[in-house]
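Appendix B. Extra example for self-study. Work through it before the problem class; the solution is given directly after the inputs so you can check yourself.
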Amino acid sequence: MKKKNGSSLLGGDWLASIGASFISIIIGLLFGFLFLIVLSLINSDGEGFRSIFSTAWKYGFKQILMGGFYLPPISLGQEIAAAAPLILTGLSVGFAFKTGLFNIGAAGQYTLGAFGALFCAIVLGLPWWACLIGATLFGALWGAIPGIFKAYLNIHEVITSIMFNWIGLYAVNTIMYGGGSGVMYDSSKTKVWDLRSLFPASVIPNLGLATFFKNRSTTIAIFLAIIIAIIIYIIIDKTTFGYELKACGYNKSAARYAGISEKKNIVLSMIIAGALAGFGAGLYYLSGIAEWKPLDSTALPAIGFNGIAVALLASSNPIGTIFSALFISHITTGGSLMNSQYFPPEIADIISGIIIYLCAFSLLFKQLLMKRGSQRHSAELLDSTLKEPPHIDSLVPESDIPESGEASGKGDDY
Amino acid sequence: MLLAKYTLLYSVVLMLVALGGAFTEHSGVINIALEGTMTIGGLVGVLALVVLPPETSAFMIILVSVLAAGLAGIVYTSLLAFASVNLKADQTIGGTALNLLATALAVVIVRRFNSGTQSAKLTYNNEPFLFNIGGLTVNIFLFIGIALLIIAIIVMYKTRFGLRLRACGEHPQAADSVGINVYKMRWWGVLISGFLGGIGGFAYIVPAVQTWNFEVGVAGMGFLALAVMIFGQWKPGRIFFAAMFFAVFKSMANIADSTFLAALEWPKEVYNMMPFIASMIILAFTSKKSRAPKAEGIPYDKSGR
Amino acid sequence: MGEKGVIGLADAEYIIEMLNITKEFPGVKANDNITLQLKKGEIHALLGENGAGKSTLMSVLFGLYQADEGIIKKNGEVVKISNPNDANEQNIGMVHQHFMLVECFSVLDNIILGVEPTKLGMLQENEGRQKVVELSNKYGLHVEPDALIEDISVGMQQRVEILKMLYRDNEILIFDEPTAVLTPQEIQELMEIMRNFTREGKSILFITHKLQEIMDVSDRVTVLRRGKYIGTVNTAETTVEELSSMMVGRPVSFLVEKSDRKPGEIILDVDGVTVSSRLHKNNAVKNVSFNVRQGEIVCLAGIEGNGQDELVYALTGLEKQSAGNITLCGQDISKASIRDRSIDGMSHIPADRHKFGLILDYTLEQNLVLECYWEPEFQKRGFIRFDAVREYSDKLIEQYDVRSGQGSATIVRSMSGGNQQKAIVAREIDKDPELLVAVQPTRGLDVGAIEYIHKQLVAQRDQGKAVLLVSLELDEVMNVSDRILVMYEGEIVGEFEPKKTTVDELGLYMAGAKRDNGRRDLT
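Solution. Structure tokens for the complete assembly:
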């Protein structure tokens, strides 16, 4: 395999990574199909197996597989519109992964980003691009918090993120609702004001895409998302900053040895991850796809968590994230198009969930693939790929863990 | 009064689930799938409730549905146990996956149960679980919860099992060197949290209302329980008080609009935020001395000696 | 040197026999056909340097590893020990070098863990406590049963480990480097305790590299070197000199060509440096002072674990010293960051190449610029200049003969150990440092690679650079260095010139049998 000058997708075994992702996808889809069959069976009233199978196919699985192509152009437009913010949350989680951090706070950063976007639009009356910047800044702020807690107080980012997800949600909803008379709140609809009718300058332009897809929500957001993905790819692979971040993610000790400041990089990485999620929220809410509901504080934006699936599927590769986001959006759109009389759209979420679960041990798949494939260095790579790069810290602060056997490497002290 | 009613309700739920989480973490596995476990356990418990014939005695209703909830929790978390212990997969990713799956699964199952309507709601009779003590409506889970708390304390600190479990989370090599099977212990730890989490989910849903919309899962209680566990420093006694503390705030949020608190004119979300903010403050100050089980989150590999 | 076996005793007198034990790990034969026989009621020392195979052998006996070949006999009968439980059933117990204690548990809980007295699953702590107190009094092992491990002294922690064995009625007790963490007073106490055990009829195996202790307390000594059995002697009939000889053997004579040089100015000055230890309350490095000049190779010799690693960490900035100053080229770098030290002229070839020296998942070229990627040559406004990096990497690969599957684009993980090390050496030397710190640079390498690296070190020295070499291999120490400083228990106990000393003498100092006092540097 020829390697491009200076870049490598995932340490040389990128083919195996893609393969592992495909395996997860296929198994996930199969399980989904199985689910549909079972549901169809439960509802069958004694029909023959043929009929059960075809119901599952015709009214369920076919839609999932076809996704937005089932009812073009509207559904296709929907799929594209939904993919844009998902690319961003996927990038958010993936970027943090590269530095060895698990950004489970993408949902909270997304929430803050939504606030930022809507605040700029409604209260400040800014044009759409300024609102996007506002969204990004708010997201970045919320990302910085777990970063700082981790770097300086040694508190695991998962804990801080989960807490601040909820703090963020409650805070944002309180402010937006404003006791029923908040500036941003439309009490007649119990939602935030509809941007398209009242603040059209804040809505992201669509340059004719809306007409093409017969869908008002399809804007240039998707292009912006792809551009950001490319920028992130450049940052990670082509800059010294990206070099340092990856070093921290792959091997903290060696990064220290090289004089790289771990604390600084942790905070910066989380700030960027937060910014990405915030930008994603901006893309969503400034496209007018839906309005924020400040009265609903029971759940965090699911897109924050779907970003985890997207990142894992793409092995945190920014360009891959574009495709995995499109895929998740594809099956989610397909899920919503299934005949809801028979099958609920949540089937798509189940498939996503299964795929994430499988990604948790995608390493196993990779090893299996490398055993089969005839890569030249497969033997050594196999033996030494016992740790999934990048390594994510345990919840226990490092200083508490005694170094067993010192830094004298493996196989000392015979 | 309402405040007391809600506080008792929430504190029992939080305590049960946090206890379960503590068992897992003491054995060395991080379990952030508490939210999902609660949802699934709650779902199965409610289904049992709905499905049982109306003539069944109250005692049987309680027994069967609670056990069903607990059992469902065990089965669901065995997925986490398998991935984390046997396959040594990343525990936070596995837990996140289970959370995402749970709500989706719950909705699908309920919709199917409701004969394919759009409704993800289940309605049930929660009378067997409630009764009156001097004008205060109290539910049976209070007693179940306290009983389980006492059992948990005894098991954790007074039995051989508890000692070995904790050893696996603190220093698995030491446990291994005295002949303890770390893998088996960790499975137990995870399954216990499944049992308690499942019951906790059921305890959250049933007593308060007669209808539950499963689209919301358990509305974040699982994550709140995680915070309770950390706040309580993984110790059952402290978890009990932490649960009360958090429950008070959550109840205040519930009643903020309608009672004396309305006079303060604080939006209810403020109360919801407080426990989380309090946790972060505590964590900030005690992170140096935080006594998380030393070896948690690190998959145990015998060959890595 | 011929073998001195112990001849002609009846088998029944041996309580444990390990016969023809061979154990291999990938790439190295830790135990090569070793035979060890332990008599009932004796204190039998197991002596050897690092890599000799002592710990592996005892781990086999305790069931932590399984031997590839050979058998173990107890009281003349063959037994199979596949795990610590089996060992326990054979009444074998072990006090590990790194204690296997749960910090937040009490002394009592640690002792009974795994063999808890219970009734219906409930712990019967009082029963346990009674037995512990009995044993404690009987053997003079003072402990506080309810104290937490994290609160007690290291000496008491060790007594807890010992009580673990006694509680299980172990008769064969293995001690792995027990005195490393003890004060002199505690060491004396431990020896008395060991003698008490043998008076009771228990048998003791104890692993050590400290000659004086062997002379003080053991009955017989078995010496291992590089995985092979060298011999067994009666302590009463031998001397430290003889033991030291057996331990280190004759140096291999592939001489390194070195011309005489006169060292120039002081490049590195270490003054009164003390570094605390992560493992125990004693300091790892105690008030160490020395210097290294231009054009000389100074070697810190010593057995692993005597403070060399911690000293190097303090020098390079990976850890902070608790006292003392470090000066590089006249500038005080005691508080400087790791990067600043590197920029000021220090290069570091680390002992653990996988942990510190390389990012295994990066390519060869990415690793080769690890210490200079920020320089204007390799980046422009934050963007990596890939052509420059590739050119530099190709140059180094050719110059230093670093072999890899795909050249600069190879993922380092797939390279052989020798070439990985060459890459690190290439990178560090090409920085043109004033001071090169090389820690065990030839560990695990084949003869060709070793020769190559030695050549590089000498070349640096010939160009007038200062080289601080830390090595465990005495032949390397003797052949490569200009000046040798022996470290023992965190202090520099002797200074030598290779031409004026012998390997045997070094061995004595390394094992603590001899020490000098006074200032460390000559000239």
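Self-check: Chain B touches chain A through 59 residues (CB under 8 Å). If your reasoning did not lead you there, revisit section 3.
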